[in-house]
Write a structure and sequence with these properties.
It is built from eight helices and nine strands. The protein has 226 residues and is α/β, with parallel strands linked by helices.
Length: 226
């Protein structure tokens, strides 16, 4: 079975990572929007680096939870061909044992040169003095508002070949990820939403399971592997 899984902030919430669009989420603070645009970085790179240094430390302090571990087990099982796509910029999937994770929004843990596009592991603290070997300024290797998510060709190809598309812990608000369920359905795939509560796209899924990710995801994986 070919399975495409999309994960969002909800899968990492129980590991201590904050969500973005739920009530009380990070994007309810309008000042934070300035920290997630190329224009904001150009205007005040020190403030942007300070924010991402904090988020990077938060990522490193958190541990994978049972949902991450269950998906890693599913991906490692030879009976399933799993493409794991995440909107998250943490590395909790990898630390749980998943491999070849498609980070469509990049990751806090890598730096990106604004001049030559080179990427390298981010130090724990990045500043305006953090530079690429070419001399260019460094920024976090994350996709900001107004930028194109990474690896969309690869994700699109996987969706058109999937037998099952599963969205876990995602709001269903942000495109292009919000449109993945429609692409999968048009290609003939079964669709499943696993979430704490129904998302903005809940009615577009054929099936659903609601509750904490640490309970619903392991239960679903056990069902698949039974």
């Amino acid at each position: 079975m070919r399975i495409v899984i999309l994960t969002g902030a909800g899968i990492s919430a129980e590991s201590g990572m904050g969500t973005f669009r739920d009530k009380g989420g990070l994007w309810e603070n309008p000042d934070l929007m300035k920290l997630a645009t190329p224009e904001g970085f150009a205007a005040d790179p020190a403030a942007v680096h300070a924010w991402y240094n904090m988020r990077r430390a938060k990522v490193r302090s958190c541990q994978p939870n049972a949902a991450h571990v269950a998906l890693a087990a599913l991906q490692q099982d030879p009976r399933a061909e799993v493409t794991l796509v995440t909107q998250n910029v943490d590395d909790l999937h990898e630390r749980a044992g998943s491999h070849d994770v498609i980070h469509m929004h990049g990751t806090h843990l890598r730096a990106l040169c604004v001049d030559c596009g080179a990427r390298w592991p981010a130090p724990s603290q990045m500043t305006v003095d953090t530079r690429c070997a070419c001399g260019g300024a460094a920024r976090p290797d994350v996709v900001w508002f107004g930028e194109v998510p990474y690896h969309m060709d690869r994700v699109g190809a996987a969706l058109t070949q999937a037998d099952l598309f599963v969205a876990i812990g995602t709001s269903g608000v942000v495109y292009p990820a919000a449109g993945f369920v429609r692409v999968a359905r048009q290609a003939g795939a079964d669709t499943l939403e696993i979430n704490l509560a129904p998302s903005e796209r809940a009615t577009e899924f054929a099936r659903s399971a609601f509750g904490p990710a640490t309970q619903t995801v392991p239960a679903w994986v056990a069902e698949v592997l039974a």
